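Predict structure. Chain length: 338.
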Amino acid sequence: MTPTAYTRIAAVAAIAAAALVAAQPAAAQWKPARPITIIVPWAAGGATDQVTRVTAAELEGPLGAKIVIQNQPGASGSIGKKNAAEAPKDGYTWTAGAPKQLGTYKLLGLYDTYVKDWHLFLTVVNVPIVSVNPNTAYKTFPDLLAALKAKPGQVSVATAGATSSGHLAMEAIAQAAGITYRHVTYDGGNPAVIATVGGETEVTTQLATEQSEMLRGKRLRPLAVVGPTGMEIGGVGAIESVRKWVPNVADVSTHFGIIIPKGVPPEVIATLEKVWADRIAGSAALKKYAADRGALFAPSYGEAAQKAVWPTIQADAWMLHAAGKLKMSPAEVGIPKP
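Prediction complete.
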């Protein structure tokens, strides 16, 4: 990313990483006696799957245990998260993804849960990109915007489903620009990207981490970053912010990480907090992943992670409310307007 792109977020991330190292929790005693399962509630190859596999490899050494990844996509990630919550509370079943979705599942009628019901261990912040199949006529974002205005509800946009990062990115554009589109949903970011590469859809607004390889291979054409400023991806070049053309588009940057339901033994969480401070806060593998894929390395856990995620829950909840997608008002579950 360019230095101007996420200066504020990067500064907060740097402070948080330093705090993790400086204020490590007391040594914990949990030593896993068998493999740990992480349920990835999206299809293989997407942003959650990618970063979870990198993180799992970093955790196996300090924990002294094998970590098994299980992909369980469906219902915007709620099925896999629900399965993790309903597993025995022994600390051996975790899940992963974007914690902000835990704040909107109840509003959508998908899953009765709240973000405070979970322990959050964050790793990176991801940002969406508007990209198109190279065979389309859309050479620039203004080309696409003109088509969206000229053909209401007809331009097909692939995302990973309701409340996914891609969906919120397109909703942010639609609400700011006063346009409509044809939403085509898939069971993960990677299938949505592949659909656009294959010409099944014209546009995708999934995360940079999910698109980067296709962008490098010229199999997708990037038009705009759905974020406050532009970014640069190695082998792709600079991509301008959508705000150059639609100034009021909301910031839909998304934190990702490991999510563990509350109720597990406290020594499990204490151990993970120590590992986050000792290993994850300085992980060269996660830093490289973020740099290569167009993400921001931003590790945190505990109350700091909850505070980092809360503004994104507020923004998404009220954006979905404005789009008429919710079963109830965010105010009914204690989510005030941002």
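Summary: The two ends are 26 Å apart (CA to CA).
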